[in-house]
């Protein structure tokens, strides 16, 4: 049985994003875990633990220590070596679908902002001598390649619709880090980080914690909550990296899209809310095109004129995303889609939101994943 | 962090590459079975898994496939260098690599720009960089 047929999300909580000086990642992880439990989950029902470790190399949120901290003897526990909520939740879902666990708490937390962690550290001894540091450089090069491939150099500024739309969404989200208004003028006058990307096109760095709890679907329904059901998923890695043709445009994402669509029959036109893990705004363009929301080379036009805003045809990153809400590698996107599908989102609620899609990437995009969640089990 | 970040870190697979650069030669391992040029270097050919290579000298010619300009110094040692470009160059032999291009007013950086290897001292090493070539030189 495919994993998506018997897995549901039963709770999702995020701490306030931003600066938590004096808090460790462990502190924030405990806060997030308690916040999720308070949504109606009994602690004794949780029999699995998946964490994602802080990216700063501090060892914080290492799963066995975190399990010890929260006093848990789970059937299974672990963490993936690489980051991203989509990957961690897929791991948790597989623990459930294979019968190893019935309810898995998934937790990520970091104090990377307050601890002053520098994200420059490269992994690649072939590229760092040339100053090719930080994932922003890779994203910028992908965007430059994209613009040239489709002859869109003169339209590059249209990218601003993503940062501006998401900032407006964040202004309606009390836990978001950046909530001040951003106009087109603000965007266009913003400084370059790595041309052709401006500061506003690159994620914020924030402290915070998130907990998402997954459960076997029937068990989730028995708990008399409003679970949100996992309806489809996909995953494709491109570990050959630079040896892949056109690798800057993440061609393996197309395979993830095919899996996502084939396993559910749910199509782009059925999606009420889209969540793209947005370390940099061009990630949205790649997702829109590879997942079939628009054709190749069309995404810069697709995102204009309010189409991706809360009242638009395809609301994008309704909580502000990593560009404005906080840098939690896709975890906040899942908290938001859970509450949107339950209708809990107040003034930023998307009317009639029943089906939501998440699109994630990891590393320097050598990993891609996607999932579809719905308020209906089938 | 120090400027060591910007120095090559040879390992047992890449050492011949960095050693050849010291004498301004571009050398890469060619698979003895299938002829694939392996970059980045590793213990085997990524195409056929053969573990035997012959080191060959490459033309050093290629073209720019994409480029960016860093305005933010992600490491303190780069503060004097910004703004600087980073480019992806595809060598005529098919290998893609990340590098810097020495721009000239006559040949501003653009995708498709034809370039030729140049060798720039960096501590005890040399870095493989590229400079534009005139079309007539090809």
Write the layout of secondary structure elements.
The complex is a heterodimer of chains A (about 375) and B (about 140).
Chain A: E1 7-14, H1 25-37, E2 48-52, H2 63-69, E3 76-79, H3 85-97, E4 103-110, H4 134-149, H5 160-170, H6 184-189, E5 192-195, E6 197-198, E7 208-216, H7 217-222, E8 228-237, H8 253-262, E9 273-276, H9 282-290, H10 299-302, H11 321-324, H12 331-342, E10 355-362, E11 367-374
Parallel strand pairs in A: 2-3, 2-4, 9-10
Antiparallel strand pairs in A: 1-7, 1-8, 4-7, 5-6, 8-11, 10-11
Chain B: H1 15-22, E1 27-31, E2 53-57, E3 61-70, E4 84-91, E5 96-99, E6 114-122, E7 125-132
Antiparallel strand pairs in B: 1-2, 3-4, 3-6, 4-5, 6-7
What does it look like?
The complex is a heterodimer of chains A (378) and B (138). Chain A is of the alpha/beta class and 378 residues long. In chain A, 29% of the residues lie in helices and 19% in strands. Chain A contains 12 helices and 11 strands. Chain A has helices spanning 25-37, 63-69, 85-97, 134-149, 160-170, 184-189, 217-222, 253-262, 282-290, 299-302, 321-324, 331-342; strands spanning 7-14, 48-52, 76-79, 103-110, 192-195, 197-198, 208-216, 228-237, 273-276, 355-362, 367-374. In chain A, a hairpin with a 1-residue loop joins strand 5 (192-195) and strand 6. The longest helix of chain A has 16 residues, at 134-149. The relative contact order of chain A is 0.19. Chain B has 2 domains: 9-58, no CATH class; 59-138, OB fold (Dihydrolipoamide Acetyltransferase, E2P). In chain B, 6% of the residues lie in helices and 36% in strands. Chain B has 1 helix and 7 strands. In chain B, strand 6 (114-122) and strand 7 form a beta hairpin. The radius of gyration of chain B is 16 Å and the shape is globular. The mean pLDDT of chain B is 93. Chain A binds chain B through residues 118-122, 124-134, 137, 140-142, 144-145, 148, 191-196, 240, 242-243, 247-248, and chain B through 1, 5-11, 14, 39-40, 46, 65-72, 74-75, 78, 81, 83-84, 86, 88, 96-100, 111, 122, 127, 129. Strand 5 of chain A pairs antiparallel with strand 3 of chain B, so a sheet runs across the interface.
């Amino acid at each position: 049985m495919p994993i998506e047929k018997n897995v549901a999300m039963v709770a999702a909580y995020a701490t306030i994003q931003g600066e938590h000086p004096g808090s460790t990642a462990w502190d924030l992880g405990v806060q997030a875990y308690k916040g999720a439990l308070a949504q109606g989950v009994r602690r004794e029902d949780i029999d699995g633990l998946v964490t994602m470790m802080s990216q700063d190399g501090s060892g914080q949120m290492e799963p066995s220590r975190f399990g010890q901290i929260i006093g848990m003897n789970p059937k299974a526990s672990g963490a993936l070596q690489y980051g991203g909520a989509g990957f961690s939740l897929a791991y948790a879902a597989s623990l459930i679908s294979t019968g190893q666990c019935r309810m898995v708490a998934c937790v990520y937390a970091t104090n990377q902002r307050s601890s002053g962690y520098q994200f420059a550290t490269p992994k690649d001894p072939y590229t760092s001598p040339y100053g090719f540091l930080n994932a922003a450089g890779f994203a910028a090069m992908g965007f430059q390649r994209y613009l040239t491939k489709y002859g869109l150099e003169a339209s590059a500024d249209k990218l601003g619709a993503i940062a501006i739309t998401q900032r407006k969404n964040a202004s309606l989200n009390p836990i978001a880090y950046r909530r001040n208004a951003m106009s087109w003028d603000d965007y266009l006058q913003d400084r370059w980080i790595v041309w052709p990307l401006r500061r506003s096109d690159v994620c914020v760095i924030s402290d915070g914690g998130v907990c998402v709890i997954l459960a076997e679907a029937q068990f989730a329904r028995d708990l008399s909550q409003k679970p949100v059901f996992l309806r489809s998923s996909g995953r494709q890695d491109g570990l050959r990296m630079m040896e892949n043709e056109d690798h800057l445009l993440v061609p393996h994402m197309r395979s993830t899209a095919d899996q996502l669509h084939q396993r559910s029959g749910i199509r782009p036109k059925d999606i009420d809310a889209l969540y793209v893990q947005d370390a940099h705004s061009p990630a949205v363009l790649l997702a829109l095109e590879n997942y079939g929301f628009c054709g190749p080379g069309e995404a810069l036009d697709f995102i204009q004129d309010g189409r991706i805003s809360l009242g638009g045809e395809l609301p994008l990153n309704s909580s502000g995303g990593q560009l404005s809400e906080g840098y939690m590698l896709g975890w906040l996107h899942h908290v938001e889609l859970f509450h949107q599908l339950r209708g809990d989102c107040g003034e930023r609620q998307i009317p009639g939101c029943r089906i939501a899609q998440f699109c994630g990437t990891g590393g320097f995009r050598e990993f891609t994943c996607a999932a579809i969640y719905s308020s209906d089990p089938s | 962090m120090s400027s060591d970040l910007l120095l090559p870190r040879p390992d047992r697979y890449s050492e011949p590459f960095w050693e050849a650069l010291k004498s301004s030669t571009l050398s890469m391992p060619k698979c003895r079975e299938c002829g694939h040029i392996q970059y980045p270097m590793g213990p085997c050919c990524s195409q056929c898994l053969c573990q035997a290579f012959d080191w060959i000298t490459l033309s050093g010619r290629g073209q720019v496939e994409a480029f960016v300009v860093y305005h933010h110094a992600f490491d303190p040692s780069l503060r004097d260098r910004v703004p600087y470009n980073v480019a992806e160059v595809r060598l005529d032999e098919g290998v893609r690599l990340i590098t810097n291009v020495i721009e000239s007013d006559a040949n501003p950086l653009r995708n498709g720009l034809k370039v030729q290897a140049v060798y720039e001292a960096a501590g005890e090493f040399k870095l493989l960089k590229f400079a534009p070539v005139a079309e007539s030189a090809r």
